[in-house]
Structure formats: structure tokens, C-alpha cells
Input
Amino acid sequence: MPVPPVNLRPALAATREDWQRRLEEMFSKGQFILGDQVKAFESELAAAFSAREAVGVGNGTDAIQLCLREAKLTERRHEVITSALTAPFSATGILAAGCSVRFADVHPDTLQMDAGDAANRIRPRTAALMPVHLYGQPCEIDRFARLAKGSRLVLVQDACQAHGARFQGKPFTEYSSRVAYSFYPTKNLGSLGDGGAVVTSSAVVAKRLRELRDGGRRGGQVSYMPGINSRLDEMHACYLRAFLPKLNEWNDDRRRTTAFYDAALRDCPGLRPVKRTADSVCHLYVVRAFKRDRLREFLAGKGIGSGVHYPVPLHLHPAFRDCGLKRGDLPHAERACKEIVSLPLWPYLPESAAHEVVSRVLEFYRS
Output
């Protein structure tokens, strides 16, 4: 049976009545930018994530950029250390703010940015740390918080893959006042287009972010600071408001599927699941696979989709060649990128589909 890597239709069907009602409200008022839907969603998101404020923006990349701009980090002399194993948009957000990007290696078991390696890469020009909560798994944010405090660095969290996650029961805003999210459609909490938000524990930070996202304006036609144009659309807020009440349920559904995968593939030769903790919201189910590319070809031939998140570590991307690193400098990230593969995972994934995925993976390795 065909099994795509992700399927958004069941989630849309489960929330249809709610998002249709909100769309009708939006059209009846005729306001499509920074209206009631965005304002209500920001309040609901902050409450759901146990934060004081949430500020909707155009996408996750802009959320990162705006966090750095709000912290007044906008020059190339401001270096920001982030993970070499993540989406390139993490580093793109850093460059968009005007900063320089530097990369740290990952832990070989969790593939999260290694706090010890990051600490060794701090130098006088380092201005900020940006750990990534990769694959829905919270990184050791307590260690990064201590490192940032001890080194007097700004701490920005890239939580673009970790909607609803906490670290040891505490919200991410307990560890820093700038947490960036993306609402790309395939995220645990996604819109039907690009969208993003910054969640914060600081009313002052939220106020500045709202000005910066709207061209530096304060509700009028005068710009008081160099800002950008990055505002969450009302239409996307309609969908997000319908999806948000389902987030915990959907995350639990993801956990059940990943637990099934773990048990069914535990003794599979050639596969090793990436280590997770109970805090993970399981954005992706990632394993390290022997003969990864041949496995993907085999699965595709059986109608089963898969992905690679991500095939090239960021320090080897041409766009980030100025980072000062070369092949071989970050061995854990480089090796992982040759082995990782993401298996199908989404809310409402049928049990029969999960069994089909496992059956085909076992067939490949046992044959």
C-alpha cells in the first residue's frame, strides 16, 4: 500500500468546522493583515506554551532574524554559533540579521548540538548561541543557558521543529526570552503556507518584536527603527487557531507511532534509531541506516516515501563557506548526514500503514 512521508488531509478534515468558521469571520471583517485572528492566535499560543507573549511573523527564518535584531545583533562582527545539522534556514536567519554564522558539531547519539563542542568554539567575537531543538527533541537547553549566562551571550532557541515540547517539564521560555517557531505546513503545528512566531517571557522583547516585524512602526506610518516586513497573515492564523487545540493530541499520536517503530525495528540489522527522550514531540522519526540510499530506493519502489533531514551539514554548504570550517572538521554531523533517513510520520497515520513501513524495511535488510 502507498505510504507518503507526510499526509495533511486527515488533520484538515478533523478541524474543518473550526477553520471554516474562522475563515468566515475573517472575510466578514475584511481585515487580512494584523487583525483579530492573529491577535487571538498570539494570545492562545502564548497560553498553550506557558509563555507571557507570542508574536506572529512571516516564517521561521524571520523569527530567528527578528530575535537577533531585537537583541541588537546586526553586524558581521557578531558571531552566532548554531548546529551544523539542521535546515539551512536556521543559518539563513542568522545571516539575514547581518550576523556571521559559526557551527558546532552534534552529539553522535541524539544529533543535537553538542554543548561541550559549542563551548570550545566560543571566542571574543561570539555574541550569541542558537541551539536547535532538532526533530522535535529538546536539546540540553539547561546547559546552553548556563553557557550563555557564564559567557555573557544572547541565547536564541530554534524551536521550529518542537511545537509543544518542554525540557524536563519546563517551558522553553524558562531558559531564554527568545524562542523561534516555524509554521511550515509539515510542522507539528503548521499553517497552509509560511508562518512563524517568537514566543517570549518578556513584554519588552515582545513590544520590540512587534515593531520590528512591521517595518519599525508603532501602529502608524512612521518607522522608528530599521525593521522588516514579516507579519503572520490572518488566513494562516485561522488555520492555526483550529489546529492549536489539537496539538497535544496530535503529538501523542506521533509518540504512539514512533513507539511502535522503535519496538518493531529494535532488532533490525542495519538500523539505529536516533536517541530520544520522553520530552520529544516526535516531529520526525529518524534512523541511521546502513546503505541508506539503497533503502530509500527500495521503499520508493514499494510506494513508501522517506526523507533525509539533512543530506549535507551546513558548514559544507556553499552559502556558508565563510564559517571557517572544512570537510572533516565536524565529524559527527558529517557522518550522520550520510546515514540518516526519516520514515513516514504524521497524526492519524493508520496502523496498517505503519505496519507496511516496518514490513518493507525488515524485508530490505533481511533479504
Notes: The chain has a mean pLDDT of 97. DSSP finds 13 helices and eleven strands in the chain. The CA atoms of residues 60 and 214 lie 16 Å apart. The domain at 9-245 is CATH 3.40.640.10 (Aspartate Aminotransferase; domain 2).
